[in-house]
């Protein structure tokens, strides 16, 4: 009986197709041997063995995906280093480009203010090299000895010299509301204008871009609370107008205009300081005039009537510097985009 069973099993194994066998290797032989043994087991044991084999097969098939797709640690470390190196290269490239650009790269010069600066510089250079030796130094010494009444021979030049120290304030009222987004901060150039006039402010004006609309966040504390304050503007008008009074130029022009102008011509003709200061104040006043139409547009006035805006600007030349201060006191408030 047993022999008959063994013969049947052998015949069954021999008749199995080659595709049903796992392989001709040791693994395949062991599987066949296990199958033969299963036929020799009792039925209860045979069922238990089948279940055990099925569970092992399921365990073999359902391998966690993390184990199937896992990347060796040395490869993942290499990829991480490469990613970091790429990020560092991009950051270094960006920093290099920013350093190459710098503060003075891609600067666009405004031709009007640039020409004015070249005129100022040329006049200053020429007059300094051709004046009578000691002429300007004598005027400076008299101003140091008595700033209010230096007795230099021209009350009108005294007005010009003292006005140059204050004209930066009405110009600041015109420039600072549009200072946001400019290439350079105008503050140091405005401070410098008290001593160097357009020699300082012109460096900023050459790169300045027009700004016709502003928001509340664009205004600094000083601009919002001081330069836009009407009380400050009127005090500035009084300070500049007072120069005509304390120097006596106002009375001299009223009583003897021709004599006052003759004294002025003689002084500026014989000293570089007199002539250059006059040219300096003229350019600064014209700079203020050029900023008024833009300032009116920021305040929503004469947007469609530029001729009126130009007329208002030109009227400030009737009283140099004082006219600019008077404009700042009478102008309407700013129209802010976020308010």
Describe this structure in words.
The chain is an all-alpha fold. 71% of the residues lie in helices and 0% in strands. The chain is built from 18 helices and no strands. The chain has helices spanning 2-15, 26-40, 43-61, 65-68, 73-101, 111-130, 135-145, 155-163, 168-175, 186-196, 198-205, 221-227, 230-246, 249-255, 257-270, 272-298, 306-315, 322-330. Helix 6 (111-130) runs antiparallel to helix 16 and helix 8 (155-163) crosses helix 16.
Give descriptors for this structure:
single chain; 339 residues; mainly alpha; 18 helices
Low-confidence stretches: 1-6, 17-69
Kindly, what is the distance between the CA atoms of the first and last residues, rounded to a whole number of angstroms?
107 Å
Mean pLDDT over all positions:
79
Percent of residues in β-strands: under 5%
Number of strands: 0
Helix amount: over 70%
Radius of gyration: 46 Å
Name the helix and strand elements from N-terminus to C-terminus, one letter apiece: HHHHHHHHHHHHHHHHHH
Q: How does the overall form come out from the CA principal axes?
A: globular
